[in-house]
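A reminder from the course coordinator: this example appears on the midterm review sheet, so study it carefully.

Given structure:
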């Protein structure tokens, strides 16, 4: 299962805290299917490393080596969800889970 991380701007590992949220591939498509996924590579990315933020500003999805892939997440590794705020991601996931 992919993991959703809500991360701050800044260098790794200081940009991430707390546990990630496990999602199914179907949930990923339902929540993020209309967003652009930017593959960041096999390691967790630093985002805007020169300008750290105090709050979460980014949504990153992680697909582990043993989790498989999907049409939206085509490789194992980390994806930045372009244009999606952490608040929107959490709200949309909760709404989706309530509706099924």
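Designed residues:
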């Amino acid at each position: 299962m992919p993991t959703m991380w809500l991360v701050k701007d800044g260098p790794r590992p200081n940009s991430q805290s707390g546990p990630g949220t496990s999602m199914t591939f179907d949930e990923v498509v339902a929540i993020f299917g209309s967003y652009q996924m930017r593959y960041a590579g096999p390691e967790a990315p630093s985002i805007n490393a020169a300008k750290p933020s105090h709050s979460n500003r980014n949504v990153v999805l992680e697909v582990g080596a043993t989790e498989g892939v999907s049409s939206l997440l085509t490789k194992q590794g980390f994806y930045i969800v372009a244009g999606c705020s952490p608040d929107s991601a959490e709200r949309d996931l909760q709404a989706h889970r309530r509706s099924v």
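The mean pLDDT is 92. The first helix runs from residue 25 to 32.
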